[in-house]
């Protein structure tokens, strides 16, 4: 919001510039007694056939300058431009944006109308729907998940069959529309209090051994010490067997997919310091139909066989 002082300052600058332009135009166009005639000159070039005269601008050209000044005054009265003065036309950039947005939304609604309310697996079998879903994905989701949807550290790979919150069509749609909050609490101090200074490392050793339980008791003393700590602290979310719980977003620790890395240092940081992953809700941004299209595209990435079979 512009203060009155700044408003009057801007108005004064505008008025001074307009008046100055008018005065300069009038002053330079005026002929005075003693001025040389238009054909008089004292400027000659060396070859003698190029002469500079003192002829004024054509009248129509001068008039165009005056018309420009009058137009600028009318423009500043109709549109906001004089400080805090809103203009008699009532135009605002936000209002213009709202009008343009409404027109664009109407065109989008017409484009997406054939796909409204259709289930994700049905949309995934429609090549046109997948193309639209991919375009929406590239504009909205690729920033985090990448244009190939294979993710990065902290951002899930959407092309495999591993889903922390569930990979069924309705679960993917819920993720897109409502968002997800994946929180891994800090357990460093708790584990140290329960198992001593090496407790976090012991839990790391146990977690790293989960994919191959037969190795747990084969001279893996760290894993053996970490097992009861895991069952006491971690099993409530990840399960006693480490298979995870999709309703909580707790990942399966027995597969070979690790969102933040599987090396000992990454696991130690995850357990000791915690993690917080946020998937924003896109319902308000995209609307239901566009959310369905992008969810269908994402579902098709890990269900290519079902998509191809349904399209036949």
Automatic annotation (TrEMBL):
Coiled coil: none annotated. Binds 2 heme C groups per subunit. Residues 128-211, 221-302 form the Cytochrome c domain. Its main location: membrane. It is found in: Cell inner membrane. Pathway: Energy metabolism; oxidative phosphorylation. The chain crosses the membrane at residues 6-27, 60-78. Belongs to the CcoP / FixP family. Component of the cbb3-type cytochrome c oxidase. PANTHER family: CBB3-TYPE CYTOCHROME C OXIDASE SUBUNIT FIXP. C-type cytochrome. Part of the cbb3-type cytochrome c oxidase complex. This is Cbb3-type cytochrome c oxidase subunit. It comes from Noviluteimonas lactosilytica. The gene is ccoP.
